[in-house]
Write a structure and sequence with these properties.
Layout: H1 7-37, H2 44-65, H3 71-104, H4 114-133, E1 140-141, E2 144-145, H5 151-193, H6 196-212, H7 215-235, H8 242-253, H9 255-264, H10 267-280, H11 293-298
Antiparallel strand pairs: 1-2
Helix pairs in contact: 1-2, 1-8, 1-9, 2-3, 2-9, 3-4, 3-5, 4-5, 5-6, 5-7, 7-8, 7-9
Length: 313
């Protein structure tokens, strides 16, 4: 398979992978750092975002340090990136599940399910990684290690990664649809009751959830080209499309950055950052920033961190 790409093509793919993974590493690392530094963010809902960012950060790290031309680093890249990539999109399903259970089913027991979430995410990731390793020959294909040359190996790869991936995408899409529909109904009810306070609350929820509805598109954007590339490779193994490989490597490696922006940079994180900046920001410069922390604290924008999930003390 490696013979289908020239040495220059492989260098280009490795450069794209390293560059995109670097952005993802910085983005997801920033969310991890915020969780560690800001105590007010350590609520259960943002803890799930922390685990997602941690998975993305480790996936990006091993993707950068992995060297397909060296045996040890090849194994490290192959096993680790597969494990943490699966863990990443599985954590998005736990976030979707938490939103659905809280908003639609009005349950407040989501914190009690944390152990089950860990068992589900890390256990499934481990099983998928082990299954994929059966009968696999580690080699390199451009930026990637762990390449299956036979149809059986490619089928196993597809089953252990792309099948659960698209299952997660469908689940997230269906779940967010139900959450948005629920809040739409609540908004219409508030308008009918002319309850201004409730209307403002429902509209704030809708402002956040309308954005959450786009979250499944992150996974689609990150892995659509990879899926197409794998299907094409399975059907026509002797014909490798270089530009498709570039899009595959680039978008997949940027998943951590996409997740950190969409899931992590919510109003609670921004507010925590602004509060710290105000401690050191010169008073004469604050007038240039009318949307200061005080104003932002007055906003009741419903984000993932603050979504009706009460932390048990």
């Amino acid at each position: 398979m490696a013979g289908l790409l020239t040495a220059h093509d492989r260098r280009v793919l490795m450069a794209v992978n390293a560059g995109a993974s670097s952005f993802s590493f910085v983005g997801s690392g920033f969310i991890v750092l915020c969780y560690v530094l800001f105590k007010e963010l350590r609520k259960f809902s943002f803890k799930l975002v922390f685990y997602l960012a941690l998975s993305d950060m480790l996936c990006s790290f091993f993707s950068m340090v992995g060297d397909p031309s060296k045996a040890f680093f090849c194994y490290a890249q192959g096993y680790s990136t597969h494990f943490f990539s699966v863990a990443s999109f599985l954590w998005t399903t736990t976030i979707a599940f938490t939103l659905h259970r809280t908003v639609v089913r009005h349950k407040t027991d989501v914190e009690d399910l944390e152990a089950m979430f860990h068992l589900y995410v890390w256990g499934t990731s481990l099983v998928m990684t082990v299954i994929r390793s059966f009968g696999n020959n580690h080699g390199h294909l451009g930026a990637y290690c762990w390449t299956q040359t036979g149809r059986t190996g490619k089928a196993i790869h597809f089953i252990t990664f792309y099948v659960p991936l698209w299952g997660a995408i469908l689940y997230n899409g269906f779940t967010y649809f139900q959450v948005i529909r629920m809040l739409n109904n609540a908004t219409r009810m508030a308008v009918g009751m002319s309850d201004r306070a409730y209307q403002l609350d429902a509209r704030a929820d809708m402002k956040a959830v309308n954005r959450w509805g786009y979250y499944p598109l992150i996974l689609i954007g990150a892995w659509a080209f990879g899926t197409i590339d794998r299907i094409h490779d399975f059907i026509e193994p002797g014909h490798k499309i270089f530009w498709l490989s570039v899009l595959d490597v680039g978008t997949a490696s940027l998943m951590g950055l996409f997740n950190s922006i969409a899931y992590g940079l919510n109003s609670s994180v921004r507010r925590a950052i602004y509060e710290r900046l105000e401690l050191f920001w010169p008073e004469k410069l604050r007038k240039w920033f009318p949307n200061n922390t005080k104003y932002r604290n007055q906003q009741q924008e419903s984000e993932l961190v603050s979504l009706k999930i009460q932390d048990q003390q």
